Amino acid sequence: MSRRYDAKTTTFSPEGRLYQVEYAMEGINNGGTCLGILASDGILLASERRSTNKLLDKAVFSEKIYLLDENTACSVSGITSDANLLTETLRLRAQQYLLRYQEPIPIEMLVQQLCDTKQMYTQYGGKRPFGVSLLYMGWDKHLGYQLYQSDPSGNYGGWKATCIGNNSGAAVSILKQEYEEGVTLENALKLAVKVLNKTLDSTKLTSEKVELATLKRTDGETKIEILSTARVDELLQEYELKAQAERKEKEAKEAADKRAQAAKK
Question: Does pTM top 0.85 for this prediction?
Answer without folding.
Answer: yes
